[in-house]
Amino acid sequence: MKTLRFILGDQLSPKVSALRGADTTTDIILMVEAQAEAISVRHHKKKIAFILASMRAFAETLRGQGFTVDYVRIDDPENTGSFDGELRRAITRHDPQALEMTRASEWRVLEMQRHWAESLDLQVILREDDRFLCDEAQFRAWAAGRKSFVMEYFYREMRRRTGLLMEGEQPVGGKWNFDHENRKPAKPDLFMLPPHRVSPSPITQEVIKLVSSRFVDHFGDLEPFWFATTATEAELARDHFLANHLPRFGETQDAMLEGQAFLNHAVLSLYLNVGLLEPLDLCRRAEAEYKAGRAPLSAVEGFIRQIIGWREYVRGIYWLHAPDYSGLNHLDAKRPLPPLYWTGQTKMACMAAAIGQTKREAYAHHIQRLMVTGNFAMLAGLNPHEVHEWYLSVYADAFEWVEVPNTIGMALYADGGIMASKPYAASGAYIHKMSDYCQSCAYDPAVKAGPRACPFNPLYWDFIGRNEDKLGGNPRMGPVYATWRKMGPSRRQEIKADALRVLEAMNHGGL
Q: In what order do the strands lie in the sheet with 68-72?
């Protein structure tokens, strides 16, 4: 039976379920570069180039294995620009008896797949994406009956299920979590290596040329382009991280340094998210580094927790609450996203660093996303959906299943506490503690009021004050609100005036 196997741009693994049992003599593999997907938001140029180059390289790999690949390029004059149009054209070309697909990672595309299953006059097989370690049904079973979805408890279940860092039923080292040994401020290190960099192949060079002309108005720098675009290259990036960065990953994972975009972070999530690396294999290799004595338990546990804990957890949350999750706005935040999120032009050193780096690299690490750009967006009351679309646009590893919970739930508390037991709100003191940004900043984190005050300071207390009706009863916010309620009317008025001044400056490019 001739089967058309439709592979999406984040399913670039030979083990993806839609390829299972594929027959090189009868089956056709369909891959489509769709303009509608590239412009669904203003994706970073480097992100578009990474996905298209990786798709083209994967298609060549499949051809090398003897498969017939029907690959539709974005600049093909006959390309309709959409998945639906190209699938229907391919069915007309090939007249298959069956269509086989792996479930899409985004609700919108999954709905397309479900529509095809109902409307097309051929057998449609929609398989689970078993590259993940916890499927939707398993996560729903874990979540059933719980009043709150605490990631730590889910993570422990995943440790038991995978056997990673386990001695029988007990965690290695006697504890599940070694975070108290991590989260240290970092000091400048002249010998800190960058992530593994790859010289663009001819395929990638062709894509770079295409993106530079076709998506000229999109955000971000396209070059230098150094991302891996094949499994072999991604594996070299993986091995570089394990050998050079994993040993110090834990202690510096929350630190931020001026001019150090990567520190000891892996920069592997983009490869995991498109299928060039496998999550369980990566975790087992990290575990092997601990067992060989080359990396401390605190670092390895923290790294594994991000993959089998956090990564799987946010995907479960996404599917548990899709499709409405991205529209949640518990704190009724309505301010438009200001231009500085696109330009990076601000006197705030931390925001300028995080956004400037994002523009250059299509990357920022999780603390820059959560506690700088995300924290500022929440404190300033920016519209959650606009902030969500910004995060989805600007990062190479941002796919909706992982980005929406991290933005709507963690960064903005727009879900009202589905993911986090309290908002991740912080004043300038946190950024001063965890970074060296404040040393070169026009504002002072020690100043609480007036034009020299770090903008995070008045925005923090203004956020606390204006959300008292929704957050005042939160037990974890008790000490904060006790302080707020002791403030006199004059101090509260000063905070409100300073916050308004900051917001006005933000809106008019003077912050």
A: 68-72, 28-32, 3-7, 98-102, 123-127
